[in-house]
Structures are given as structure tokens and as C-alpha cells.
## 1
Amino acid sequence: NDGQCCPMCNEGRVVQKDCTVYSGTQCRFCDLGTFMNQPNGLYNCFPCTSCDTGHGLFVKQNCTATTDTVCDVLNGYYCKDLIDSNGCSLTEKHSHCAAGQRIKEPGTSRSDTVCEDCQPGFFSKDGVSCTAWKVDVVCGRTSSQHYFVFLPFLLCSVAFTSLVTG
Ligand SMILES: *[C@@H]1O[C@H](CO)[C@@H](O)[C@H](O)[C@H]1NC(C)=O
């Protein structure tokens, strides 16, 4: 009434009764499941955030009268919406790499899986790792294989012989 504001309530409390000319602000503690993290002149505490297990979150830190719940990310998920570098409010499942790809970097709680195409000559059925094609030695490719083994050998022999004979 005299142009001065009522004193604020501390963290963990809200206003039960405004001050009067004769008395200060009356404050009350936040009920279970609610919190107040700043000095305030409010009448209601904030409801605590709940961490939704069905959406890849778990309680990292329980709600107190002065701090909200902190949620973190379950295995197999990564955070899409980080709060304060600590908590998370939204997650997504790690991607699976497609056939023909490998996992270049596994997903973490902060980042999705990084996939990479297999190099030529490699294959991947499961999208996990790439395996080299096997060279088929049975079905008529023996001659070309021998060619690749014997040609360098032949060249070496010629080189060696010419070296020795001057
Ligand atoms: C949170 O509180 C619940 C119930 O009181 C308890 O079971 C759980 O262990 C607590 N979690 C943490 C992270 O403190």
C-alpha cells in the first residue's frame, strides 16, 4: 500500500499470505512433487518433471523442494533436447545402419550412430561391419590367380638374373 513490494519467499517456498502494513510475507513449503528454484512472490510451486521410461529417459536426480527432477538417457537412445548440458527432455532411438553399411561410430547418449558405406570389395548383411569378398579359387579363376602370383616372380627372376650376369 505504501508503494513497497512484499518480501519474497526463498527457494523451496511460495507465498501463503501476502504481507500487510503490519506483517511480513507468510511463506509455505512446496508440497511433495513440486519445487521452487528461485526467490519468488508466487502462490504455487512448479510441478516436478517426470522422466518417461517409455521414451528412453530415467531419473538421474530426484526432484527436491528447490530443484526439478533431472532426467538422463537410457542405453540405446540419444538426447535430442539437452537441458543445461546435464538433463535431457527428449530422446530418439539410435539408428541401425543399413545392409551394405557398417557402424563407423556407435551411438552415445548424446549422439546418434554414424554409418558408413562399405568400401568396394566389401559387404555387410547386418549393417554392423563390412567383410571382404572371398576370391573364388574353385570356379575357374585359378589361372588368373596363378598369373598374379607368377608374373611378379617371373619379373624378379629376370631382374635377378640380369643383375648377376651383368
Ligand atoms: C528417487 O526416489 C525414489 C523413490 O524415493 C528412489 O527409489 C530412487 O532410488 C531415487 N533415485 C535417485 C536417482 O536418487
## 2
Amino acid sequence: MKIAAINIEGNGTFAQDAPAIADAVKASGAEIVLLPGNSRVKRSAAAAAAKAGAEIDTNVVDLDLTGEKVTAKRWVYRQRIFTAFSRAASLEHPWVIVTDPSLFGELCAKAAAEAQPFTAAASAATRTVISGEENAVTGGESTIRPDAKLLFVAGAGWTKKQADGALHFDEAAATITGFLAKSGASLGSSKSLVDMPEAAAAFTFMSHMNQVGQTGATPRHPKGLSTCCHGEEPHVVGWRFVNERRAVNLDANCGWAQGKADVVYVADAFAVMKKVNELLG
Ligand SMILES: Cc1cc2nc3c(=O)[nH]c(=O)nc-3n(C[C@H](O)[C@H](O)[C@H](O)COP(=O)(O)OP(=O)(O)OC[C@H]3O[C@@H](n4cnc5c(N)ncnc54)[C@H](O)[C@@H]3O)c2cc1C
């Protein structure tokens, strides 16, 4: 396993650096390429890796080298979890590891990789050539509607066993999409719901892009309606630009009831939203 290091410093444009770094990665003849994570590298390295057919990981703070196996270490989830991971790297699909800039020298030494200087090829094209257009929305209608008056937020409760002791994924999905179609509301979600693999099959209209909160989006809508969502602080911080807030929750002591919503309906959201959909016609 060959590990190369390229010392990229100074300034450069994305248009020139992305192809030049891709060329340098390929020309290194190495399975793993280390780069220092300064602003120039951070701007262009991801695109360069894609052009070079490489995988890339940024913010790596340490490496473990055991025989042929290289393990990278980095913090995730806002510095709460320290992870160690590895990737299969080959000459056709190299692994680009972007380190913290201050650790670049130390990690190069650890990997016994002498950092090579980088020279950006000035010949890179600076004009984009459009080869065609493709609708960004694939697999159905977009549920993220920034101009909507209402943000409708679905929480993990939609996937929990209900009073009859059964799961109601399909009914939940139909109720939510039915309401979105009738009301034109934008769809938000809690982290718990978008992280749930078992929900993914039924909730195809929802992705991590819908997540509202500390590690999600902070949408701006005049009104918000939260359903089957507990109202935990890391979620509710994403509501800070939503003015009028209402929530439907079975639990009278949920987070929304503790000063986070203007109105809390202590009720079954399945029944409430079914009735709302009927009233909307
Ligand atoms: C560092 C950090 C960052 C985080 N960032 C985010 C973030 O960005 N966004 C985010 O959402 N979360 C985030 N979280 C997670 C957050 O703390 C909560 O765990 C999460 O929001 C809970 O999701 P939930 O309310 O959908 O699910 P749960 O906590 O499981 O709540 C489900 C709710 O549904 C109710 N319910 C069940 N059935 C019904 C029914 N029929 N009718 C009405 N109500 C019903 C239940 O009473 C319950 O209150 C973060 C956590 C950490 C530690």
C-alpha cells in the first residue's frame, strides 16, 4: 500500500485546483493520498476526488497503520463521537485523506510519506460547458417547499406501535403525503425519524434533507405544526425562525408543552390528521 502526500499551500481557484488536484492524485501512483486541510484544499479537494474516482474523508486527526491496513480517525456529530474507520483503496479508486492542517506534517511522518510540492496546471478550463440538464427532483415530488406558509413536522411517533399494539407505517405515510398535497405545506422531520432504517421503505418522500434541528435545517415559515415528535431541545432549536408553533402529541408532558409551542393538542395525531385531511376535502 503506497501512501503519498501532497503539500498544497497558498491560494488557488476552484476551477483550476479541482482538475489539478485530481491529476496530482492520479499521478501520485498511490492508493492513499494525504492532503493538508487548509481552506484551499477544503474548497477543491472533494471535487478533485470525484474527478479522480477517489473517495475522500476530511478532518482526519490521526492515522493507525497496521501492516497493509490504514485506519483514519476523526470526530463526528459535533465532536461528541470519536470514530475510527477504514476504506478499501486501490490505484483505480484511491482514498484521499484530508488532515487537520496543523497535523499534516506529523501524519505524513507517521505514514512515512514525504510531502511533494503541488503545482496547479494553469491550463484548466475556467468556463463551464453544459452537457445537458436533469431535474434535481428524482423519485417524486419535492417535499421541501421554502415558500410554504406552514412547516409540517413529522416525528418518530408515526412509526411507533399505536394503541392497537400494531405499527401503521403505510397509514402514516398516506396521511402525511395526503396532508402535504392538500395543504401545500413543507415537510420537516425529526432526526429520529430520518435515521430510522425501517421507516425508509415507507417514508420514501423524506430524507435527511428534511431534518430540522441542531444538526439539521432551520427553516423559515410563518407557522409550524409538529406531529408525533417529542420536542427535544436539539430538534426545537431548528424551529427558532418559525413564529406560530403548534404540536399534536399523546404526551401532555412532552417538550412542546414545556414552553416550546403556543398550542399543544394532547391527541392522537393519526386521528387528528385524518380528520384534517377530510376537512381539507
Ligand atoms: C448532538 C445532538 C444533535 C441532535 N440534533 C438533532 C436535530 O438536528 N434534529 C432532531 O430532530 N433531533 C436531533 N437530535 C435528537 C433529539 O435529541 C431527539 O432524540 C429527537 O428529536 C427525537 O425525535 P422524535 O421526537 O421524533 O422521537 P421520540 O423522542 O421517539 O418521540 C416520539 C413522540 O411521538 C409521540 N407519539 C407517538 N404516537 C403518537 C400519536 N399517535 N399521536 C401523537 N403523538 C404520538 C410520543 O408521545 C413521543 O413524544 C440531536 C441529538 C443530539 C444529542
